[in-house]
Amino acid sequence: MQREKWDNRTAFILASIGSAVGLGNVWRFPYVCYQNGGGAFLIPYFVALFTAGIPILILEFSLGSKFGKGAPGALSLAGRGKEWLGWFAVLVAFAVVCYYSVIIAWSLSYTGYSVNLAWGKDTESFFWNSYLCVSDGPFQLGGLRLHIVVTLIITWIAIIACIWKGPKTVGKVVWVTVLLPWVLLIAFVIRGITLPGAMEGLSYYLTPQFSALKNPNVWLAAYGQVFFSLSIGFGIMMAYASYLPPKSDIANNALIIALADAGTAFLAGFAVFSTLGYYTYTEGIPIDKIISSSIPLAFITFPTIINEFPIFRQLFGVLFFLMLFFLGIDSAFSLVEAFSCGIIDKWRVRRTPLLLSIGLIGLGIGLLFATNAGILWLDIVDYFMCNWGLVFVGVLECLLLSYAYDLKKLESYVNQSSDISLGNWWNFMIKILAPLVLLVLFGTEIYRRTYSSYGGYPRVAESLGGYGLLAFFLLLSIIFMKKRARVFA
Ligand code: PHE
Question: What is the pLDDT of residues 227-239, one digit of tens each?
């Protein structure tokens, strides 16, 4: 059977950018940058991009493209006994999409709420008490929040529709899901920087504190952000590269994708901080009192600021949450594609029933995150998947391919058709530097986790749950590997 292919190079590049550019660019990067030295953070960020982000992206692209299979298949063809790592990566991807889709569903709800600014004056209480109606602990599930379930169903329908015919559909959808958020983001930057107080806000974002560069945590933050932001370690980039025609330029594409991702994150910071500066200006509250990252930034701080806008409040609300929706959706379907691609490669199941089943199971699991305890679970699962699962895959990918496979083979494969040629520098990054940094990242996380309290509720139960889930995925990965299929010959 002929493998499906992208229609053209742009489709592949846009799809990969769509996966990389997500909510993290808007609500994580600006905050991390502000916290870790402002403008000076760009130095460790770019160092991390070039020493770990891009080399690993090239590694994943080259594997997917050379073997023409998603993560499990590609790793299996790279040598006996490696297939499980591919399964583990795509299982983590599937776990991530189960909650990531819920955040997209919230964005959809909030798009609707923007029409009449339904959150009212107390945006914080609206989010926690009226919208999520959060319970006191993860084990008090309460009931399903029906309005979340409705938008979650719509989100899953969108996710499955976008990957319905694989690269053929994805290649078309990404023209909208990548370009539209860019247009909206630029509009928000322009709106932001023309508001009074904007410059003040931007100075918080960008004033370089070079002394921060002496702090190793700043460097770790940079590596962590790069790794998460490029969507590596989930098998996504292997799946996407497996649909490339032979002789595609890999190193150059990786560079374009990584720079587009970094550029978007940097730009998003302008939108976020200029708008925060405006709020500080109108309300007289210092920025460090209102700045936050991730969920509170989008669902509490932004609605608050939208309330303060002089004109077109509703319109800005709608556009802002639509932007989040589009930013998220192409990351979400890339996660599903990573998983389904692995299954189709191995068992040659038909795409339609598989996608429908994945959609239903994903939706079903997602219901947990649509209960009163939803956000508490979301926090826990996110922590384990992104801090442990992802780094684990990253380290092993580098090490297994360096020491139990010949990196030179991948190097010469890439060099056949790329403008930029790989050499010893690439080998060094993959063999030594990237895994080393990731291991340190891992070590500090264990330390942090052991010596600091996390959340307000007992850590034992949720930790056991988190590690348990990862252990379960590991077991499942091995079972999947052992299941015989003739396809990975
Ligand atoms: N790269 C995405 C972001 O920056 C996060 C993500 C990672 C999404 C992996 C999907 C898969 O938001």
Answer: 889 999 999 999 9
Please tell me the distance between residue 404's alpha carbon and the centre of ligand 1 in angstroms: 29
Distance CA 263, CA 77 (A): 35
**Hey, which of 231, 267, 323, 330 would you mutate to test ligand 1's pocket, going by the most ligand atoms within 8 Å of its Cβ?**
231
331 pocket-lining for ligand 1 (C-beta < 6 Å): yes
Ligand 1 lined by 25 (C-beta under 6 Å): yes
**Cα dihedral sign, 259-18-178-307:** negative
Segment holding 481, helix H or strand E: helix 459-482
pTM, entire model: 0.91
Residue 18 near residue 174 (C-beta atoms within 8 A): yes
Is residue 31 within 8 A of residue 292, CB to CB? The reply is yes
Closest CA to 373 of 126, 148, 120: 148
pLDDT digits (tens, 9 = 90+) for 179-218: 999 999 998 899 889 888 899 889 888 888 899 998 888 8
How far, in Å, CA of 96 to CA of 335, rounded?
A: 8
70 Cβ below 6 A of ligand 1 = no
Pocket lining: 481 vs ligand 1, CB cutoff 6 Å: no
